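Protocol step 6 of 9: fold each sequence in the batch and record its structure tokens directly after the sequence line. For illustration, a two-sequence batch is reproduced in full.

Sequence one:
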Amino acid sequence: MLSRRNLRVKVMQTLYSMEHNAQQNPADAQKILKKNIDKAYRLLFFLLALPVRISNFIKKEQHVKSSKFLPTEQDRTFSAKFCGNPFIQILSENKQLQDLLKLEQSEEESGMVKSLFKDFSLKEEYVKYCTQTISEEQEEKKILLFLLSEVIEKSEDFLQYVEDNFPECVTELNRILMAAKEIVEQLSKNGTEDIFQFNDAKTEEDFAKELLKKTIEHEERFTELIEPKLKNWDMDRIARLDMVLMKMALCELIYFDQIPVKVSINEYIDISKIYSTPRSKDFVNGILDNIMHELRQGNAIRKTGRGLVE
């Protein structure tokens, strides 16, 4: 579910936190990394629970409106069709989501669900959906995807909630939203498979754990490779984050034989653009390029597979 860039960023954040906390050891670092990865999955579960919570809100609204002694025209025409969406039912029956849905909503969450439904109910697509007596399976799925893409994803309340409760996940929110849509796309009325089974999730998480472990284990070697190349740079002005990124890049160059050299270097240059200083891109690129040529001359970079050397 998380891309390798997302995982590299999480490793970077973990290593950077160790730079500022001398009491943290490698075991602590692995725990922090796992906690941050788990947090991303919890956000995914929360995101997929939102349509169910909106459906539950609609049911309550319908009950209130139908119980009025003098209902208005708006009360009488209120539609609860979305509650019968078969894919909402599939989501609500998933055990992992059931555990989450059993938790009492905070005031902030309840307010957000109400706001999301209000936005949803005003959309032309929702109004049209509610006027249809019967909807085909594809239409039922389409309205659920519309809710995720055009309502939840664009909601300021939802974004604020993520910033407040999942700050570690803000940079990968787009990827998590994409994963939620992919899950909905794969839902089937007759399907009984676990909707949270990701074929490559464990492999990718193992990559992150190994990257963290080896970067810590060989930190001295990476420092020895980097420091001689810093003669023309003011050490006091070199961002600590740049040092972390370069060590991670060197770790991939030397110890991850299935990742192409260019992929590793380009990834860390791009990450430096987003998370470090304005000059970091050129600095990281220059130092890594210099070390890469030195490592190649010493036959220290050994990639396997066609096209992986370049």
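Sequence two, same batch, same settings:
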Amino acid sequence: MRNRYVHLLLPALLVSITPSASRAQAGRTEAAAVAATVARFHQALSAGDSTAALAILAEDAVILESGGAETKDEYRAHHLPGDIAFARAVRPALGRVRVTLGGDVAWAASTSTTAGEFEGRPVDAATAELVVLSRTPGGWRIRAIHWSSRPRRP
């Protein structure tokens, strides 16, 4: 008698499992898109392409670094050329990027180490980065970046 109802339960179970599986896949796809957006920003800096880097920043983006905060326009005028020069001179070894999604907002946290030489000085630093993004009709855009770094310990 119990086996007679199994054929009714099985489709109901499959229907309840499928949305969760598709949500998980959609989450992985969105997380990958967020990580790719952050990677494109860094690639633009490394390539010396300020236009591409700025296109990824939202108009109201804020960049936090070295104890200060800059708007997108201030970043364009002040730190962007230095960030491009640095990114072109030394390549970081990126650690794991952790992406968290919350609807149309996401944040990507990562660490990296950078070793080399910049402007005649040795560089051996550990860096942490937090990037906050929002989903727009044109894709993910960076709304805020926070960078902090310190000399690496031997």
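Proceed to step 7 once all outputs are recorded. Observation for sequence two: DSSP finds four helices and seven strands in the chain.
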